[in-house]
């Protein structure tokens, strides 16, 4: 009878230990992405936008907002070219490789400036018009 009570006590203590360890407050809070979201979060305003090596002046009012919750939102995007929504960090070693809406994007930071390169094709634009297909380079500056 004493062995049964002792065994029950051991199981209860083990369960409490597992709960305490699993529920502690030492989560990475974004560090699993190498701190990329923390470095990129904020508002970015367009400086220049290039499509297939040619400057595209339709993006003068373009704004990219990146949150620490791994979301990208845009405004001033005339053709909804820039992928927006939830993103995933694929490589945090720099330049950062990020995917959003099945588009692989390269993000390069340089003293308050951000360059984003990606290629849109009919396969990753969900059948949007062919006019937006191409190789894009967005040069952005962090909003103060």
Spatial order of the strands forming the largest sheet: 1-3-4-5-6-7-8-9
Please, how many domains?
1
The CATH architecture: Beta Barrel
Let me know the average pLDDT. Answer: 82
Task: Name some characteristics of this structure.
single chain; 2 helices; Lipocalin; 8-stranded antiparallel barrel; 18% helix; 9 strands; 144 residues
Helix-strand blueprint:
Elements: H1 2-22, H2 36-40, E1 42-51, E2 54-55, E3 63-67, E4 71-75, E5 85-91, E6 96-100, E7 103-110, E8 113-120, E9 134-142
Antiparallel strand pairs: 1-2, 1-3, 1-9, 3-4, 4-5, 5-6, 6-7, 7-8, 8-9
Tell me about this structure.
With 144 residues, the chain is α+β, with helices and mostly antiparallel strands. The protein has one domain (31-142): Lipocalin (Beta Barrel). It is 18% helix and 41% strand. It has an eight-stranded antiparallel barrel with strand order 1-3-4-5-6-7-8-9. A hairpin with a 4-residue loop joins strand 5 (85-91) and strand 6. Residues 17-22 and 24-31 have low confidence and may be disordered.
Summarize the structure.
The chain has 144 residues and is an alpha+beta fold.
């Amino acid at each position: 009878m004493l062995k049964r009570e002792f065994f029950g006590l051991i199981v209860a203590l083990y369960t409490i230990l597992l709960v305490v360890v699993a529920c502690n407050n030492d989560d990475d809070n974004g560090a699993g992405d190498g701190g990329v979201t923390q470095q990129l979060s904020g508002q970015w305003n367009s400086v220049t936008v290039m499509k297939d090596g040619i400057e595209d002046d339709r993006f003068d009012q373009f704004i990219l907002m990146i949150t620490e919750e791994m979301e990208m939102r845009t405004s001033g995007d005339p053709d909804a070219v820039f992928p927006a929504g939830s993103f995933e960090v694929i490589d945090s070693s720099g330049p950062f490789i990020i995917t959003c809406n099945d588009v692989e994007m390269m993000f390069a930071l340089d003293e308050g400036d951000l360059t984003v390169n990606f290629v849109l094709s009919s396969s990753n634009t969900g059948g949007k018009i062919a006019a937006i297909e191409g190789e894009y380079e967005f040069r952005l500056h962090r909003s103060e």
